[in-house]
């Protein structure tokens, strides 16, 4: 005995004003009676604390309530009987009906809303239920009419731009890394740019770019902010020839990114952190417990890294030609 929901679109992507169609498929060993077959559409912005978080955000967790987006309940069948074997029951629902007042706007984030089907049976019988997630794209009115032109910024990283202490040998020897990177891109396009190591007194072990998600919650008059790394891209592995231009090409992870959002009680932003790791002939005098201290390598050398050079980026909704997107419920 089983029940499942099969949507008409294999990618489960819809716009708020589109009709969501599908079938309820039941597989029964014997015929069963039911009082109703109920469909529920539920979408909300869930403000939650990530595992391992501590401090003020954790203390506020218990008082933060979800922001409802859509809540619909409808019966697709009244009382009746489902025959044994495989049966298919069609259904359809509009997420955002122009005649109805929605609680909130639909946000294009990286999780979706849920459609649940429940077969309500008799008092002594267990109800049958199934749930499927759908993904909501931005409304057509919110999309840009023309493709986005990337906005590039120029950056440079030297020993003088570091906000944390460097090893004396690295600070006196010096280094200079320059480049440019786009700060505005579509959700469906990669982040592009270039990077050049103009000079460095020590060999470079690696250059990495971290994509961070910055989530903020407004609670009363305070803003609680939390950053987390969602992707790491290695631009270079090993020492790099000086003055050689390296391309930057970062594909946004589909399940962990969304357009930049500034809503009333919350916001979701993204930024890039560029970190350069050097190799130098140093003793193992630095404590391993300090995450910013140089770490001994297997060859008797130590690695010293720069502090993160942060670049804030803006991700905008994808265009009409794009075939995939994000939903509207998310975790902070």
TrEMBL record:
Gene3D superfamilies assigned: 2.60.40.640
Region called Disordered, residue ranges: 285-305
InterPro entries in the cross-refs: Arrestin-like_C, Vps26-related
Pfam family membership, one: Vps26
Source taxonomy: Eukaryota, Viridiplantae, Streptophyta, Embryophyta, Tracheophyta
Name by which UniProt lists this protein: Down syndrome critical region protein 3
Family indicated by similarity: Belongs to the VPS26 family.
Organism: Castilleja foliolosa
């Amino acid at each position: 005995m089983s029940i499942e929901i099969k949507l008409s679109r294999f990618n489960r992507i819809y716009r708020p004003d589109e009709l969501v169609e599908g079938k309820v498929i039941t597989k029964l060993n014997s015929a069963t009676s039911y009082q109703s077959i109920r469909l529920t559409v539920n979408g909300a912005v869930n403000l939650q604390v990530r595992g391992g978080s501590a401090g003020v955000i954790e203390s506020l967790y218990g008082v933060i309530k979800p922001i409802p987006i859509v809540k619909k309940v409808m019966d697709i069948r009244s009382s009746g009987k489902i025959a044994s074997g495989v049966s298919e029951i069609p259904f359809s629902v509009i997420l955002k009906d122009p005649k109805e007042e929605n609680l909130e706007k639909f946000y294009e984030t990286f999780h979706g809303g849920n459609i649940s089907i429940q077969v309500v049976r008799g008092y002594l019988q267990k109800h049958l239920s199934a749930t499927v997630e759908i993904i909501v794209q931005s409304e057509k009115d919110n999309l840009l009419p023309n493709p986005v032109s990337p906005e590039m910024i120029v950056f440079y990283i030297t020993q003088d731009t570091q906000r944390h202490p460097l090893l004396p040998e690295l600070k006196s020897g010096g280094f200079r890394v320059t480049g440019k990177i786009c700060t505005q891109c579509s959700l469906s396009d990669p982040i592009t740019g270039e990077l050049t190591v103009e000079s460095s007194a020590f060999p470079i072990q690696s250059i990495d770019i971290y994509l961070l998600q910055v989530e903020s919650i407004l609670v009363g008059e305070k803003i609680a902010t939390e950053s987390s790394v969602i992707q790491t891209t290695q631009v270079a592995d090993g020492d790099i020839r000086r003055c050689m231009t390296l391309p930057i090409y970062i594909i946004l992870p589909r399940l962990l990114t969304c357009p930049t959002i500034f809503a009333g009680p919350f916001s979701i932003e993204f930024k890039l952190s560029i970190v350069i790791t050097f190799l130098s002939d140093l003793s193992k005098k630095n404590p391993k417990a300090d995450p910013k201290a140089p770490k001994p390598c297997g060859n008797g050398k130590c690695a010293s890294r720069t502090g993160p050079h942060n670049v804030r980026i803006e991700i905008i909704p994808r265009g009409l030609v794009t075939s995939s997107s994000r939903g509207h419920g998310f975790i902070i």
